[in-house]
Structures are given as C-alpha cells and as structure tokens.
Amino acid sequence: MERGTVDVAAAVAAAGWSSLVASSGGPMVRELERAGARHIVLPLDSKNPFTMRANIERLQRLMAEAGVDIVHARSRAPAWSALFAARRHGARFVTTFHGAYNIANPAKRWYNSVMARGDRVIAASQFIVEHVARQYGADPTLIRHIPRGIDFDRFDPARVSAERQMKLARDWRLPDGVPVVMLPGRLTRWKGQEVLIEAIALRGKKDLRCLLVGSDQGRGGYRKELEQRIARHGLETVVHIIDQCNDMPAALKLADLVVSASTDPEAFGRVAVEAQAMGKPVVATAHGGSRETVLDGETGWLVPPGDPQVLAAAIDAALALTEAQRRAIAEHAIAFVREHFNKGLMCARTLEVYREVLGLKPMGQYPGGPRPAGAEGAVAA
Asked: How far apart are CA 188 and CA 218, in angstroms?
C-alpha cells in the first residue's frame, strides 16, 4: 500500500498535477517529497471514532485550502474520514481495495465496505474485482482492475552487485554452497511461516537454510511461537528469523527459492512478483491473486494453502532443478512480470481513472506528458 502510494503520487506530480498525501507519517515520507509530492501529517492511522470524526474536519479544511478535486483512499480508517470530507467538499472519491479483509461479522463487513464506496474502485487483481462485487455489492462497472506495478530499476538482477549479496550473506551467516529458501513478509499468522517450518521438518533433511524475512511489528507472541516450533523440530541451525531487510532485491537474488505460503488469499502477492522479477522460482499458495501472478509449472509452483506436505514436495522439486532449467524459468519469469506488472503501466492506468472521474478525455500520453486542459487543480491525496 505504501509503495503504491509513493509511486502514484510521483506520477501525479510528473504529470503536472498537484500531489498531496495525508498520513500519520513513516519512513517513505522523504521519498514522497523527493518525488515532488507534499506530505501532511494527520492522525489518520487512528480507529478511535472521535479522532476519525475530527479527521473529517481536518481533511475538509485541507481540501478547501489546496483545491482538491480527487481523494484517493487506500486504507479503511482514513477512508471513512476521507469519504465524508470528500462528499462535503465536492471532490471525487477513489479507493484502492488492497486486501480481502476479514468478514467475521456484519459490523466488520460494514467497516470494510467503505473501500467499495468509491466513484471508482481500483482492484489489484481479478480475484479482488470479483470479491468486491460479490461481498460488498459494488457495481462492477465502477471497478477498475489495475495490477500493482514493480519498480524494475530496483528489481533487476543485473543491477544487484555481488557485494550487496555478500554483505547480506555475512550478516545472516549463511554458509557457502547451501541452498536458501526464503519467505519474505511480516510475521503474522496468515502469512504461513508455520506451514513452511512444518514443510522443512517433513523433508527430514538439513541441507538448506530457510529464512523468514520480516518484522514482527509488535507481534512478539507469534514470533515466540515460531521460535518454539523451530526448536521443537530441532531446526535451529536451519530456519532463521530475520527481523528486517533494507535491500530486498539483493535478498531475493541471494535466494534459490522464494515461498509465499499465505493461508488467507493474497489480494495481489507482491512478494511472488518481485521474486520473479529477480529471476527466482516461486512456490505460492493456489488462491487469491497468486493464481494470476504465478504461472504454475512455468515460473513456479502453486500449492494448496496450509498443506506442508505438498509444500515440502514443491521445495524438493525446486531445489532439484538443473542450471539450465533455472535459467529457463528465470527468463520466462522476468519476461512475464515485466509485461504484466510494471510500475509505469500501473501509474498510467491510475491516472486514466483520475481523468475518468474528472470527466476529462484521455491525454493520449502517460505520466510525464503534457498537462491536460482543465486539470490544473487536480490533486490526488
């Protein structure tokens, strides 16, 4: 979500429009500002009803001061405040539906439904297109399928030096010549770290290193559960939890196999796409967006969610690939993701949605082209 916000904000600024992003802040603020966007700090991460109500007033004042024409909401709590502020101000309201949110009860469904209330709803996969229409009754004619885009200036194997890989290998104390199986993703139960640990244990071999790369984001209890599971199987020398990685392109290039073991369906599955961009075979669970981002039997394997035995067999198959087979998969994977999941195409299609809701005719050019007539005040926030 944060990466997509930065990418689109930069494209908006490059197109000659004013680009504002309101959020509670974070490490990507500097990237926004370097891209020509303006960042406004507001407590939009709060789910407190009184704070959310106050955010309506804050956003409405901001819209009036800046002449905002479009509000683009990407997260539920901010979206509720943004929806009311946009309606009061008279701005168009666009959402990006980022996940197949939990629908545990009617109240939760109602809370999620704000993401389906846009004048246009952007969905990152066909799976989400169908999910939004089916679960929230959104008008299918208002949903726009725009897959997420990868920055191929970053995720390009030719641009990752051996020195960057060696640094990570030293930091993570990886032995030479031992295959690396990697699951990138924050430590949360539905990402499937437990399933991967069980798959490694089922193999009955200690001939690899398995890296769980991601922060626990305060989920200390779940991290402790993972550590206990690793110890119970005697895999302390095999499975390692890596708190954080600031160089994911190098990490993915270091891996021999990348796993996405999510037990709940991914709305898109950025990990699988970034890994393929780096020419790596992928094992992903066969539901959600992964069925659109991984070509089963061609760029990787799709396995049933929550099935460590099938996952173990897929790991064995991947590690048994010959060098020639690996090269063929790499070439196919890179070509596939570059054609379908590039950042420029994502940004171009998003700006076309903005023009659509503004009632403008397409410029005929993508971000960086001439400023469209009548769009001088157009702002994405």
From this structure: 10
Query: What would the mean pLDDT of 244-259 be, rounded to a whole number?
Result: 96
Q: How confident is the model at residue 360, as a pLDDT? A: 52
Query: Is 68's pLDDT higher than 80?
Result: yes
Would you say the C-alpha torsion 223, 229, 234, 238 has a positive or negative sign? Answer: negative
pLDDT digits (tens, 9 = 90+) for 2-33: 888 999 999 999 999 999 999 999 888 988 88
Question: H helices within the chain, ranges in order?
Answer: 2-14, 29-34, 49-66, 76-89, 106-112, 126-136, 162-171, 193-203, 220-232, 248-254, 270-277, 290-293, 308-319, 323-340, 343-358
Residues 320-375: tens digit of each pLDDT: 999 999 999 999 999 999 999 999 999 999 999 999 999 854 433 333 333 333 34
Lowest mean pLDDT of 100-114, 271-285, 300-314, name the range: 100-114
Give the three-class secondary structure for 4. helix
- Read off the tokens for 280: 């790596």
pTM: 0.87
- Residue 39 in 3-state DSSP? strand
CB–CB of 113/134 below 8 Å?
Answer: no
Topology of domain 157-340 in CATH is Rossmann fold (3.40.50)
Q: What is the CATH architecture assignment of 2-149+342-380?
A: 3-Layer(aba) Sandwich (3.40)
Question: Which residue ranges does the chain devote to CATH 3.40.50.2000?
Answer: 2-149+342-380, 157-340
Helices (H), 73-187: 76-89, 106-112, 126-136, 162-171
CB 152 within 8 A of CB 238: no
Question: Which amino acid is residue 70, in one-letter code?
Answer: I
| Encoded amino acid at 106, one letter | P
β-partners of residue 94 are 72, 120
Report the Cα 377 to chain-centroid distance in Å: 29
Dist CA 198 CA 357 (whole Å): 49
